[in-house]
Amino acid sequence: MNNLLSPAEIAQFTSEVGVKKAGLTWWRQLLLGVMAGMFIAIAGNGASIAGYSASSVGIGKMLSGVLFGAGLLMVLLAGAELFTGNCLMAVSVLDKKIRTSAMIKNWFFVYIGNAIGGIGYSFLMSLTTQLSMDGNKLAAYSINAAVSKCNLEFTNAFVMGIFCNVLVCLAVWVSYASKDVVGKIVAMYFPIWVFVTAGYEHCIANMYFVPMGIFAKANSAYVDAAMEQYGLTTAQIDSLNWSNFAWNNLVPVTIGNIFGGSIFVGAVYWLIYLKKKKTEK
Description:
By secondary structure, the protein is an all-alpha fold. It is 79% helix and 0% strand.
């Protein structure tokens, strides 16, 4: 028995998955989005703890990447709706299986759900003593990471968003190749590890990382630790706010994620495998 789908079969399967996603009622899309946002936030939390005390930035990102893949693993196997992965619904639209409006509706409710799950988890964790770990160093790390993300130039955030979702959607794509759980885990794990290590920008993950820094900023001891450990200025601390998060990060990163997943992965593979198939009939 063949346990592996060919690339052409993956393309067809992806198109069928998009139909099922579009067929979910809005409240299921929303609730499954909340679950996915929480899964990604939990993984981001673990990744931060793994990476904050590393001796170098590269080592820290590599260690973070070891754990962050658990987020997508939970999304795929437990059942949840993740906006970035759902950019592959473009395959179903191009394959004329669903309407563009159905895809956009799914994206809307899933994105809102992801935000509720990610920001909500960040808020709840900020109520604990976790950020005070290791003499407030975890809090300092969280604030520094969030400041960096709130001060990205549009082009930088957009391009880093593209390549992030190329890898996330490829992780989903190759996980479809396997029909067993172990195969799916192994297939999706390495693209996610690469994206985190490379420092690409993921809009849903940032719904954990930036709010965590914003909530940490409310504690003066955490701010002092960040300024001392990373040399942050008062102006940089002040730039860490919801407005900069939205306009300097979420907007360009989300657009980049859509381009990366829908066009550079979904549309390309549709063109290679599914459009050719229909032309030859």
